[in-house]
Amino acid sequence: MKIKEVNEFFKGLHIDEKIKYLDDLMLDERSGVKKVLEKIEKEHKKHLMEIERVKNMWKIENSLNVDIIGGIDEAGRGPLAGPVVAACVVLPKNIFIEGINDSKKMSPKKRDELFEIISKNALDIGVGIVDNEIIDNVNIFNATKIAMLRAINSLKKSPDYLLIDAVTLDDINIRQEAIVKGDSKSASIAAASIVAKVTRDRIIDRYGEKYPEYGFKNHKGYGTKEHYEAIEKHGITPIHRRSFLKNILEAN
Looking at the whole model, is its pTM more than 0.85? Predict the structure, then answer.
């Protein structure tokens, strides 16, 4: 094979397939092939590190002597508009999902990819959505708890244990543990963070079509300069959180 053909051959293969050809590549003395070999070896090293990272994200779950563990996280506490969304995800124990992590640490494209993988492989997924009117009535912290409870209640079966990102839920008869920065420490919570974030972003994108002058697709409802300028120019919409905009509303 020519060097170009060698590169094309490996381009579409997963690293698990690529490493099967390492011995053959080592026998080829061409400098171009040596570069391909070096690239694959680096990719393999990176892949092994990723396997170890994800393995470490299962330590909390593996320390619990329970069968069904629900990881819970939310998206949308801070925005000026739209709902807060929580997800509860039950994954098969020790499943390797490459790239799983805190949803804030990845691109929208990567989140969408992982959302599909999680949706396909999860044993159960529950989603809870609380709109801006309830947020204004009960405050964002309590609204977040309501969203989490709704997510749990929408599961097909109640988990034996809950791992929650930095929140403790009241009035629920399920053992639980609040973990600070849990979305980067627990695979179950990380999965929930991705499901919650992608679900909320898609909701906000639909609002972006309804209210194009606010640029929701760009900022997802957060308080960017663009968003504040749109509010100053056009006023607030029915999806804005009035309790988050008291200064602007009082000034007008």
Answer: yes
* Domain boundaries defined on the chain: 3-56, 66-206
Q: Which residues pair with 219 in a beta bridge?
A: none
**Model pLDDT for residues 198-215, shown as the tens digit of each residue:** 999 999 999 999 999 999
Q: How many CB atoms lie within 10 A of CB 236?
A: 18
Contact of 186 with 61, CB cutoff 8 Å: yes
CA 176/CA 154 separation, integer angstroms: 17
According to CATH, the topology of domain 66-206 is: Nucleotidyltransferase; domain 5 (3.30.420)
The binding site comprises: 73-74, 165
Query: Strand, coil or helix: what is 44?
Result: helix
pLDDT beneath 70: ranges in the chain:
252
- Six-digit token pair at 49? 């590190």
The answer for residues whose C-beta is within 8 angstroms of residue 160's C-beta and 6 or more apart is 66, 67, 68, 69, 174, 175
Residues of each annotated binding site for a divalent metal cation: 73-74, 165
